[in-house]
Structures are given as C-alpha cells and as structure tokens.
Amino acid sequence: MPRLTLQDEFAQNGIGKMLSPEGYARAWEDQQQWLLGRLNSLISDSAQANTPIRTLITTTSREPSLAPIFNNASLAHNNHHFFASLSNSPAAPSAPFTNEVSKSFSSLDSLRATFIAHANAMFGPGFTWLVARRENYYAGLPTLALLNTYNAGTPYPEAHWRAQTQDMNTARQSQMSKAAQSPQVYAQEQQARGAAGYGLHSSQQGLNLQQQTQTAGSGNKQIAPGGQSLDVLLCVNTWEHVWLHDHGIGGKRRFLEAWWDSIDWRVVESRWSQVSAGRSAQIETGAEPAGQSRANRSGLMGNTGGSGQRRREVWT
C-alpha cells in the first residue's frame, strides 16, 4: 500500500470540504488496499510481479485475457494520481502557469468551469484529466486539454495501440485497404510522400506522426496513428464511492467544487515543469513494481523501504 505525503493529516481531518475522514478512508485506504490486493493476487507468481505499474498498464491494455490485471493496475494508478494532488493547505497557481492555462482555456476560471462541467457530465464512473500535448508546446500552440476516461481507462496514448495502422482522417483512399501493413511501413510511406498529411493535418503534424510511428516495436512509446503524446498533470476521480458518502445522491457537483478548492497547484506545476523542460511528467522506468516480491520498491505508486517502513511517494 503506497503512502501519501499527507496521509496522516487526511486520515485525521479529511480533505477540506471534499471528504470527511470516513469518506477519505473509504475512497483511499479501503479502495487502494482492495485494488492492490487483487492485483498482487493476479501477478505475484508471474513474470509481471516486478513490472513497473505504468508499464503493466500499457502492456496489458489491449489483451483481453489480461483485462483483470489492467483494470486493477490502472484504477489504482489513477486513484493515486488523484489523491497525490490534494492538500488542506493548497497553494494557488503561479502567474506563469496561470498564463499557460489562459492560452488554452482563456482563464483559470474558465478552466475551472470547463473541468467541473466535463467531470459532472460523465454518465458513470471514471476520471477527468488535465493533460499537456507535448507537440503543441514545442510548436507554440495551445498545449493544455481535458480528457475523460471511463471506468479504469488510462489516459496514456501508448496503451491504445490498435491493429488499424491508418488514421482514416488523413489517409488517401488508396491506402485505406492496407490495414495489415506494419507501423514501420506506414512510417516509410509517410516519409516517401513528404509526411505532409491530408485533411486537417499539416506538414509538421505529419512529421510528428511519422516520428511517433517509427518508435513502434522499438521498446519506446507506441502511439497509434493520429495520436498525440500526452503528459498528465491533474485528475479528478468521479467514481460514486468517492463522493456518495459525504455528498449523497445528487451531490456530485458539490464534491467537484470542493475538489477544485483542494488542489495543490505546486504538485500540478511540478509535473508541468518537466513537460516544459522536455522531460516526461510521468516516470517511465523504475516505477513501483505492482507485485510484492521486491524488498525495495520505488516509483509512481509509492515507496517502501526494505524494512517495511513506508516513505513519501516519488513523483520526479
């Protein structure tokens, strides 16, 4: 069980007007322990026992027989990301980051209204994410966007590789019958025609697509044709068990408004600073192994010493 930096405070006082101590215990302690217990039972005696949890998510996401592993790993990861961004003494966003938000949402107030509306409109459980589109940042375009994922779905695009090797929005008619070609062949064809793209895609977008596709099979990120590399900055958990205890039926919006007031923008900006510095905002290697067979574990999902003494989670 990973340990949150403010876990003792949350257990005693709850989280602002968002969660009481009892609501917090149900949404974090009970839920996370249940998810990780199920996950460990699924992989403890397998080669996946020491796999970093993000790698586990992206390598099991499209294999039906591994759906139970994906569901428990992804939901535990998402829930940890949600709680790690909260504080009872939240820092306000800085002026530079507020300016970055304004480029994509016109203002911080507009982001708040849009974020809450997206999450409140979800019919069923899931997460709403604030993500950064790396290619847009380097191109000087609006970078931030909102993304909904349902149930245990993951926002990481490398988890969504598909058999279809063409983006039908950009492919020529003559290419649409080549669904069996490999990602490498697709990249070569893009390069041969100047990677100019078709439809809504510009030459630069075509080049980005080519570069992303060429990584397929190389052990690096695999981005589906037409996809973008994303870094996740912030999320809110809309599963009913998180908010029903304290806010009741019909209280989802009240929960979301209280969540916004509990965001620690220092955490969000620390992730953003890695994107703007050209690094991934999520740990790619050395992340928390999902299984229990290692004595020393470190990474996104938490940090436990060999003696069993839990330490604060590692985000950078």
Q: What report would you give on this structure?
A:
With 316 residues, this protein is mainly alpha-helical. 43% of the residues lie in helices and 9% in strands. It has helices at 7-13, 21-43, 53-60, 67-83, 95-105, 108-121, 134-139, 183-192, 203-213, 240-247, 252-260, 265-276, and strands spanning 126-133, 144-150, 230-237, 303-304, 310-311. It has a three-stranded antiparallel sheet with strand order 2-1-3. A two-stranded antiparallel ribbon has the order 4-5. The longest helix is centred in the first third of the chain and has 23 residues, at 21-43.
Q: How would you describe this structure in keywords?
A:
disordered C terminus, two-stranded antiparallel ribbon, 3-stranded antiparallel sheet, 316 residues, 9% strand, globular, 12 helices, mainly alpha
